[in-house]
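Renewal narrative, Specific Aim 1. Our central claim is that a sequence can be written position by position from structural information alone. The example that follows is taken directly from our test logs and has not been curated for this report. It begins with the structure tokens describing the chain, in the order in which they were read.
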């Protein structure tokens, strides 16, 4: 079976540490970002940052071009107190005061090229700092933030009053609003903080983010991990008149999931059959083939949404034509611009009869920034061996986009998904569509409810249901899964089926393992 044509090139977002050769480009971005003379760091400052604390200096590369950066230093904050200036805390920009044994990461700047602000570059840099803070087991992050709109209100408000009005959303300030939206808490106003910042009248806000995973030195061996937040869509299969309508509906779901700060959003199986509602085709296989003709538009849409909203998207499944054969394929669009896919492995008789869908031959377990995942499309979740093989290969979360014609179809998915979660000590996420399209084959009726299941043990909900929607209504269902709790119960839960499972002569070798690793799409 040949690979899907994924030759469309998408620019990739890469977050990495700043290197010496990056400095001229970073300086250029910094000056464009501030737009204020003599505020941005100079090349000699960045050279010092890289020499003294290289792991604390990040940049964002998009399509091979640096579009954002940030600098940080570790300090013992008690040595500076709450009346410090920017020159004090940055050692006049050279960070020779960096203290590896300090308790806080201090964020010195975040700069973003003005032409790329819609890609949430600042948010990505803040997340890189948070990850560094957790990795180094620091107490938190402290920043002195500009308040660039204050000069417009200085005649009527003190700096403190202005900040409180911004926090209450009565006034908009791009920096303060961004920082509070990213989990920082206002502590006080710092007067005379940054020379040259006339828009802020030299004032700054002292902000703090507390590392909830910080462990005092006596307990450093205790492991912590962050939850993975997942939104699963109950997609309304309503009639549309163009691909643009489809894109608008999908972006609505993705945009709102991004507001929830979800790590993943999951769409249902055969989601692009909604396109058949405006295609002039009555024959079932022709409807599927015409939907498949939108593969390029589909891939561009979800790749762009993953980048724009900084979220990993499992874009349901889509029919793809290869060598005159039709396959059902689920695509994973990562928020860093990379992509992967999983073919449906078991084809129900109705799908084969009406559309001529062919089965895939490979079960993948995909590495993501949020752990290892597998995608079992619809009918595949009803075959226990697939989930077992996926978990044997390291899967922590199984995503199941599905479509159900009636309640019986839905309940088969529902009970099998719950069983797979218990049998394999794995999280299972289902996503189903709702609504109906009377003249589109296999979508003339829908029964859907999206759900997130866990194993059943003390660390999880008593019934193993983390989140679920209401049946047959358009909705976004959001929940969090704890991978560290999963690791612990696999080792020492009330029951430990992964440890206790006997092979009875069955091999763990995956029948769906590719022989040629070169088939994997390039990153």
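The sequence written for that structure reads:
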């Amino acid at each position: 079976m040949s690979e899907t044509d994924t030759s469309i090139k998408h620019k990739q977002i890469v977050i990495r540490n700043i290197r010496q050769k990056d400095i001229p480009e970073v300086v250029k971005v910094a000056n464009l970002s501030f737009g204020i003379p003599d505020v941005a760091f100079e090349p000699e400052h960045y050279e010092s940052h890289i020499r003294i604390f290289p792991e604390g200096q990040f940049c964002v590369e998009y399509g091979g071009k640096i579009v954002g950066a940030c600098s940080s230093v570790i300090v013992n904050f008690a040595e500076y107190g709450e009346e410090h200036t920017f020159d004090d805390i940055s050692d006049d920009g050279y960070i020779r005061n960096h203290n590896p044994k300090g308790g806080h990461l201090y964020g010195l700047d975040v700069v973003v090229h003005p032409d790329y602000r819609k890609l949430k570059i600042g948010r990505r840099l803040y997340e890189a700092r948070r990850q560094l803070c957790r990795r180094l087991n620091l107490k938190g992050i402290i920043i002195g933030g500009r308040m660039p709109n204050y000069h417009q209100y200085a005649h009527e408000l003190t700096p403190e009053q202005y900040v409180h009005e911004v926090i209450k959303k009565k006034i908009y300030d791009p920096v303060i609003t961004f920082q509070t939206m990213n989990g920082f808490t206002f502590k006080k106003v710092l007067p005379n903080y940054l020379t040259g910042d006339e828009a802020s009248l030299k004032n700054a806000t002292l902000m703090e983010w507390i590392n909830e995973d910080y462990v005092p030195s006596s307990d450093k061996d205790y492991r912590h991990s962050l939850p993975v937040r997942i939104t699963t869509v109950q997609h309304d299969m309503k009639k549309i008149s163009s691909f643009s309508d489809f894109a608008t509906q999908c972006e609505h779901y993705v945009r709102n999931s991004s507001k929830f700060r979800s790590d993943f959003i999951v769409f249902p199986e055969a989601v692009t059959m909604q396109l058949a509602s405006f295609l002039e085709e009555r024959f079932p296989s022709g409807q599927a083939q015409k939907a498949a003709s939108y593969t390029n538009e589909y891939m561009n849409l979800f790749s762009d949404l993953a980048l724009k909203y900084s979220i990993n998207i499992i874009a349901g499944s889509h029919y793809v034509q290869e060598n005159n054969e039709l396959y059902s394929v689920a695509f994973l669009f990562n928020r860093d611009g990379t992509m992967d896919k999983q073919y449906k492995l078991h084809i129900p008789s109705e799908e084969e009869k009406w559309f001529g869908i062919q089965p895939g031959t490979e079960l993948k377990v995909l590495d993501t920034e949020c752990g290892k995942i597998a995608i079992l499309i619809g009918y595949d979740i009803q075959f226990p061996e697939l989930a077992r093989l996926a978990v044997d290969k390291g899967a922590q979360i199984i995503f199941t986009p599905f479509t159900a014609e009636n309640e019986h179809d839905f309940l088969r998915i529902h009970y099998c998904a719950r069983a797979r979660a218990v049998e394999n000590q794995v999280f299972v996420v289902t996503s189903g569509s709702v609504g109906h399209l009377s003249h589109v084959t296999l979508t003339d009726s829908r029964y859907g409810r999206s759900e997130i299941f866990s194993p059943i043990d003390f660390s999880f909900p008593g019934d193993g249901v983390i989140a679920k929607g209401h049946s047959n209504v358009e909705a976004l269902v959001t929940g969090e899964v704890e991978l560290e709790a999963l690791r612990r119960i696999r080792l020492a839960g009330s029951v430990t089926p992964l440890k206790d499972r006997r092979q009875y002569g069955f091999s763990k070798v995956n029948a769906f393992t590719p022989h040629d690793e070169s088939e994997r799409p390039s990153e």
